[in-house]
Design a protein that fits this description.
two-stranded parallel sheet, 231 residues, five-stranded mixed beta sheet, Nucleotidyltransferase, domain 5, globular, alpha/beta
Length: 231
């Protein structure tokens, strides 16, 4: 399983081939970023490997989808829910937090269905929005949050921005978890956290949250197995 992003200028086909040796891979692709998907398909080494299979319109995913427009839900959100269903106890519903460019907080029912959730700006997107849409606010590098959490009271512009972006993000995620839990009385949900900012969120939220780095890829692997891929 390999993850690509819009930041990848070249795709590491040679590295992949070195790992595979003489084995031709079978490939299942899921994408929510059209330019990255186009880049991937254009560079696909067809002389070496068979054509990949693509998950389109969320067809074939091994999870019930209770949203109004199931085909419009980000496939990455559903794949995380697929993986979450493997990890969660059957007697608990699930809350999935993915802290990335956009942060999502999603609910998976006790029966294992994806029920929807909330979408909000991630740490980097919040910083860029403030910087690009105001006259004088500086850009706060998201990696600065990895070093230490900021004081709540900022004593100058940069520290005030760090406080607002960081604690605003943590507070929003915590509030959504609490409200989703309150809307579904019963067993306390399991909370799984992933994404580029997931370790930060997991650290600040503490229990019952736990960080899992590769939920999307794990969900893709479970989906491939459910599809009996290859056939």
């Amino acid at each position: 399983m390999i993850a690509f992003s819009e930041q990848d200028e070249t795709l590491p086909w040679q590295e992949v081939q070195t790992v595979l040796g003489d084995v031709a891979p079978v490939s299942l692709i899921a994408a929510v970023n059209p330019p990255v998907l186009e880049q991937l398909l254009e560079s696909w080494p067809r002389s070496l490997w068979p054509e990949p299979r693509f998950l389109a319109n969320n067809v074939g995913l091994p999870i019930a989808n209770q949203t109004v427009y199931p085909e419009r839900v980000g496939t990455d959100r559903l794949l995380k829910a697929v993986a979450g269903n493997i990890l969660r106890p059957t007697e608990q519903p699930l809350i999935l937090v993915d802290s990335g460019t956009a942060t999502t907080v999603d609910w998976v029912t006790l029966e294992g269905a994806f029920a929807g959730g909330a979408i909000l700006p991630g740490l980097e997107l919040s910083s860029r929005a403030l910087h690009e849409n105001t006259a004088q606010l500086p850009l706060i590098a998201p990696e600065s949050f990895q070093q230490s959490h900021p004081a709540a009271i900022g004593t100058e512009t940069r520290s005030a921005l760090r406080s607002g972006i960081y604690w605003g993000h943590i507070g929003a995620v915590r509030e959504l978890i609490q409200r989703m839990t309150a809307e579904h009385p019963g067993e306390t949900p399991m909370v799984l956290i992933t994404g580029g900012g997931g370790e930060i969120v997991a650290h600040e939220l503490g229990l019952p949250g736990s960080y899992h780095r590769d939920l999307t890829l794990q969900g893709l692997a479970v989906t491939a197995r459910a599809l009996k891929w290859p056939q």
